[in-house]
Amino acid sequence: MSEVVKRCExxxxxxxxxxxxxxxxxxxxxxxxxxxxLWEPKEEVAVGYNDKKFDQGKPRWDLIDMDTAEEEASVLxxxxxxxxxxxxxxxxxAEERYFAALMRHLVAYRxxxxxxxxxxxxxxxxxxxxxxxxxxxxxxxxx
Length: 143
Known about the structure:
2 domains; 143 residues
């Protein structure tokens, strides 16, 4: 049997099997609902009788195609062998240069060239790396 989850009218915390938190408002602010099993409701996924798993809000790694992720890792390994591991992080004018590299790989792909002649790996795997690099620089610029 599934428990009824409601939100406390005072503090909006999820409280099981009651309509209103019976604690005073200040106690609600500090999250003291232990006798009412305080927890935040998440998406419920049935995994068996009375078994539950709450995964809402967590990254969905199962949605990433592992073959293309492995190709990206191969491109990174190629770069680490050719230059050094993570050397891409210290390249001068990196954002402009990796954007240009991204476009070269996309144009080569659009022209029908599947594999990069230098690495022998797919142009789109190289493009995926370049997009990851650009996102890395964007995130670190915002800090």
